[in-house]
Structures are given as structure tokens and as C-alpha cells.
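Customer ticket, subject: "Can you confirm the structure for OLFL1 protein?"

Message body: Hello, I'm evaluating your service for our small team and ran a test protein. I'd like someone to confirm that this is what the system normally returns, since I don't have a reference to compare against.
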Amino acid sequence: MVVLQAHFLLIPFLMSIMGAAQYLMQDAALLSYIDQRFLSLEKRLEKCNQDVLEYVDEFRDFSKTVLSRLAGLNTDKAEVQSEVENLLTRIDHAQRDIDYFGSVTDSNACVEVHEDLVKQQLLEEAEEKKRLKLMLNASCDHMLAGIRSLKIVKKTGGKHGSWMKDPGKKHTKIYLLSGSINNVILEFANIMTFMENNHTLKARRVLLPLPWEGTGHVIYQGFLFYHRYGSLNEIIKFNIQRRNVADQMLLPGAGRIPAYQLSPQTKIDLAVDEQGLWALHAEPETGGNIVITKINHVTMAVEHSWDTRCSSKDAEAAFMACNTLHVVYNSPSGGTSHIQCVYDVLDALNTYINPGLRFPKRQGSHSAIHYNPKEKQLFAWGDGSQIIYKLHTEQKV
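Agent reply: Thanks for trying us out. I re-ran your input and got the following:
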């Protein structure tokens, strides 16, 4: 009985000893982990100290290099300053010699130099005029002497629009472009078809991917050239047969003010004559006077520009004929149109103000006037009417 009691007492004692041993093992493991962590940190701190020492040494070496370079720059600066002072002294001496030479030189030498400059300028102007004549073929030997008669072909459309033939093609097609903002061209087989009452049913409709602005567009060599709506000065070249945009260009200086005061819807007016494609516009820098630009219709490049003395004030339209600008003026309320300014690009001195060229008596105004060099006629749009003016020309003197 005593032995059994001793057994029961021994079991709790042994269990308490085993629990204490287990706790000692856990503490030993924790201490070992802490010791390893401290060793790792100490190694990293030691490496960090070594890196800092290396950085300090590198910085000291770099500082010494920079200081030595700066000292060298100070030396170079002193040498350069000395050279500059020497050069200034030499320039001062040279200026004195030049002043003396100018005081004793005969004034006739200056006159001779001035005359040489004038001669050189005259030669350059003659060469430029010769180049322009070659570029423009100089084949125009006639000038506008009067406007003989008018024929109202039809009345269709609103106040603004334009109509024309293609002077660069042999066909007799008529093209109608109604409105100052639109994207539809009506193409008619001939003028008889256009004059019929139901002409719109027989017209071929050509839609443009980009609408036009104003009434200054022209058709030449199968292409429509027009000012793109919404742009300042972009000119589009549109292939009518293929119905696609073939090219485009920006016309320098154009688009800021109307080409003609009485036709504010047109900022750029394109024209065709015996020499090809032209652009007419006004600029604030010229006081509102009209600027002429010759455009290569194939490459869409500017070939030359002229600032004219023809004002855009009270002007309603203009056209080019035989290298010459003809500006048409009217009254703001509408009256008899007349050509008041003529400018020949090959002879700027022959600018005529009020040459006495008046249109046949007809009260109203024009929104577009286009010259057809093949037929020597004007195709005009006046208050919704499509008009043809026959011209009288004379040989140039």
C-alpha cells in the first residue's frame, strides 16, 4: 500500500522536471537565434563602415582633382583676359587709322561705290525680270481694252457661287459650285444641258471629301483647286475624275482677311489665265492691298509673289488675264461694276488706276469672276445669275 502511494507521488514530480527541461531547451534555441542575428548585424555594420571609409577617400581624391582644375581655370582666365585686353588695344589703333583714312579720302570714292551698288541692283532686277518672263513664257502680247457685252445664261442658286469651264481640257463640260460653303460639284455635259429647266437631273454629282470656303475656286487640267473650309490658308487639289485629293498646300500670308471687302466670304481667290494657276489674297501688312502668287499647278509650289498697289477696299472680285491682275470694284449697295486697278506682273510700273474699263450696264454685284483664257471670256456669278462677258483686247504697245 505504501509502495503504491509512493508511485503516485513520483509521477507528478517527474512530469514537472520534464516540463522544466523543455522550457530550458526553448530558451537555449532563442538565445542561439539572437546570437546569430547579432553576428549578422555586426558583419553588416562592419561592411558599412568599410564602404563609408572608401567613399570618404574617393570624395577626398575627387575634391583634390576639382581644386587643381579650378586653379588651372583661374590661370587660363588670366591668360585669356590678357589676350582680350591686347586685342582691344589693337582694335582701338585700327579704328584710329580707319577714321584718319576716311577723313583724307576723296568723297568721290563713295559716289563711285554708290553708283556701283545702283548698277548691281539694276542688273539683278533685269535678271529677275528675265527669269520671270521665261517662267511665264512671255507669250501674252495682248491687253484688255474693254468688255463688249453680257449674256445671262441662267439664274440658279443663291447669292454666292461660281461656275466655269476647264480651259485646260478640250471638252465642253460646265461645272457649277453653288454656295460659299459646300462639298458638291455639279458637272454638265455642255452649256445646252446646263440651260435646260431640269438641268440638275442631268448633272453628274461629285462629292468632295473636304468642303470648300468662299467662291474663289477654279477647275484646271481636270483638277479642282479650292480653299478648304475651316482652314486658314490650305489649298486643295482635287482630281475630279478619280474623286480623290491629289495634293494640298499652304499659301503663305493668306486667309487672315477677305481678298475683297465686298465679298467677305472669299479669303483666297484662285485664278487661271494663259500662264496657269494663280492665287489672289489681301494681307494686313500690305494695308489691305492685293497680293498675287504664281502657283505651279503640278507641284503645288509657290513660284513667285507680287505685292500690288490694288486695294481690296470696295473690291468685289478680280481675275488674271495675260499675266495681268484686273480688280473689279463696286459700291457696297450694289451698282455698276468697273475695273479700277490693273497690275502687270512683268511690268509693275504699268499699274493703271481707274483705266476706264466698265462692265455693261447691269445693277447688282458679283460674288465670283473667272477668266477663261481659251475662249477669252469671263464666267461670272452675279446675284444668283450665271453670266458670260465677252472681252475686247488690243495688242500690247
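A couple of notes from the result: Residues 104-111 have pLDDT under 50 and may be disordered. The two ends are 161 Å apart (CA to CA). Feel free to reply with more questions.
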